[in-house]
Amino acid sequence: MKKWWKEGVVYQIYPRSFQDSNGDGIGDIPGIISRLDEIAGLGTRTIWLSPVYKSPQIDNGYDISDYCDIDPVFGTLADMERLIAEAKKRDIGIVMDLVINHTSVEHPWFQKSRRREEPYKDYYIWQKGRGGHHHPPNNWTSFFMEGVWEFDELREEYYLHLFHKKQPDLNYKNPLVIEEVKKILRFWLDKGAAGFRCDVINVLWKTSLDDGKKSLMLTGLEHYKCQEGNHAILRQLRREVLDNYDCFTVGETAMVNLDEAKLLSDPGRQELDMVFYFDHLEVDRRIARFVPKKFRAKELLKRLTKWQQGLEWNAVYLENHDQVRIVSHYGDDRGAGERGSSWERSAKLMAALLCTLRGTPFIFQGQEIGMTNFDFNSLDEVKDIETHNLNRLMKKIFFPSWLRWKWLRLSSRDNSRTPFQWNAGPGAGFTTGQSWLGINANHKKLNYDAQRKDPASVLSYYKKMIRLRESSETLKYGSFKPLLTAGSLLMFSRESPNEAYVAAFNFSSRRKKLNGEARVLLRGKLAASNIGRTEWAAGDSLEGWEALVLQVRGVS
Ligand code: ISL
Ligand code: CA
Which of 170, 334, 384, 435 could make an S-S bridge to 413, C-beta 3.0–4.6 Å? Predict the structure, then answer.
């Protein structure tokens, strides 16, 4: 079924790192407003704003102390209202980040809960320790590689936190908590929000607090991932609140498999509209995204196919604020900022991939100019709490420091969180002050200003691909069919009754000779080329990092 949120691309802003307006080194809402024309110019229909709510910023805003106010570091509620209005003028909707698995310890609910004040007493998951205070209630481990229980001296009980210890989990067995969430949803929808990206939305319901099966990643997961109680909450929020507004939801769903994702996003079940899963970004990683292994195009196509065909509608993304930069990951960032380099070609290849898959494309800030992983030299420059926790854990099990750093720099979430590179000047046009996180030295060559007027830039290519997708019903709604892989070559088609496109990608800096089958499939009219081809005369090879999109049926 057609929907407005299936039509256009979503642009994710990580406010801290987007545009600073007052020189304090931290991006803010007035900064975002000043860049709305650039955002609109890309072809953005929706902005997903990572959290700007009041927060002690332990986890960059994913630890909220007031859901209905804005953190002073980002601006005021009036600024936020202005952002919604200014975006609307440009036909852009704003999607808020809904972080409701946990709050900050500084949220008044938690402060009152610690003191057993009603009605907040059971807003969180409180438990007595085992053997008095001495042992936590169970053996679960957290997403940030710690235990999940923290002892509170005031209440003399432990509270559960699946993430950082300053992010206590809410107790969804308490109906009052769900009522609070409804209020938050209505508050933002009434202000004009276009929907919600729902943070770790599949772990809300803790069925039991029994010990979990021991696991290297997450002990206890089987007691809270995608439980029936979680589905019921989503249906309730949908029925009672979301359905009364013209909005959409995309759930970030940790550790989901396809069957679970289907249940969460099947349109008939009325829970979420789309989900973010991680499978396609872990082709070359073990233990989620932490340990490297070899990339294979074959494995990527296999995983893409599974999800493209398995779900009714996909949230298509290659980057976000928790992932590394795609050009440094599946691409090749050598020659960053330089014309004709592997960096330029592979960044454009990612644009072509993003816009030819079936689903709503999400672009993370900076992806559209091909920003790369950070260039930090040591852990001291990293701010991400996840990276530091992981380092501590690896140290405990005697990993040498060189190996720790090798792996951490491959997985650190700060890779994508460095400030947006607007220009070549000091502060990269991001700030006039001291930036909160290091700015990549490659901003001197790789920046927005260098690309904005250049028709052959990565930025211009993103715009082109976004327009191509928007102009084609087949690229938006057509079916997805895997065609073939051979070494670094990956091909699929998008088909509708009257029209078909074939997309071919060479995931290597080396020229790729096409086999007979590939040559037959690649007969058609050129729809997009990332290396400036003006026609495709059924050639016999693809250039290094080439992406080719052909219209193979329905050519008028
Ligand atoms: O990063 C992951 C997979 O590669 C997942 O484990 C998962 O995305 C993540 O840990 C959950 O992320 C979300 O909630 C966190 C917050 O720190 C992240 O920034 C947010 O996206 C806690 O709110
Ligand atoms: Ca600022």
Answer: 384
pLDDT in tens, 141-166: 999 988 999 999 999 999 999 999 99
**Ligand 1 atom nearest residue 288's Cα:** 4
Q: What is the pLDDT of residues 100-129, one digit of tens each?
A: 999 999 999 999 999 999 999 999 999 999
What's the CA-to-centroid distance between 339 and ligand 1, angstroms?
35
The total number of residues written for the chain in this structure:
556
Task: Report whether residue 199 contacts ligand 1, using a CB cutoff of 6 Å.
Answer: yes
22 — phi, psi (to 5°)? -125, 15
How do 489-496 and 541-542 pair as beta strands? unpaired
**Span 182-194, average pLDDT:** 98
Nearest to 243 by CA among 267, 260, 262, 226: 267
Residue in 59, 79, 199, 546 annotated catalytic: 199
Single-letter code of the amino acid located at 316? V
User: Which residue has a Cα nearest atom 23 of ligand 1?
Assistant: 62
Q: Which two tokens stand for residue 487?
A: 């070494």
- pLDDT tens-digit readout, 408-453: 999 999 999 999 999 999 999 999 999 999 999 999 999 999 999 9
* Residue (of 368, 364, 370, 367) closest to 338 by Cα position: 370
Q: Is 252 a catalytic residue?
A: yes
Q: Does ligand 1 lie within 6 Å of residue 260's CB atom?
A: no
Please, which residues have CB within 8 angstroms of residue 380's CB and are 6 or more apart in sequence? none
* pLDDT at position 189 over 90: yes
Q: Compute the CA torsion angle 110, 112, 116, 118 (nearest 10 deg).
A: -110
pTM score of the predicted model: 0.97
Q: Is 199 an active-site residue? A: yes
Q: What is the dihedral of CA 473, 475, 478, 483, to 10 degrees?
A: 150
